[in-house]
Amino acid sequence: MQSRIHISKIWDIMEQTDRQGKPKPFAFQYAKKNGELADYPEGVMTSIHSKGATVNIRVNGDTKTFRKVCITRFNEFKVYL
Fold it and tell me: What is the pTM of this model?
């Protein structure tokens, strides 16, 4: 059976920092509007919209906005709602 993680738990992991206070990178998979799955091997959270449905993540040097519910995998875990 695959390891799973609830979507509410990934925000705490995204906010973790190392000893120097730098955010820890993580890997995630995202479902795009067209249904395509995009893999991001290294991302760093820059901000979260607590009352909204999005999170800002820096990937490949650019900060992008991602819908929270469209994250399908986080590190080695499958995300469930």
Answer: 0.87
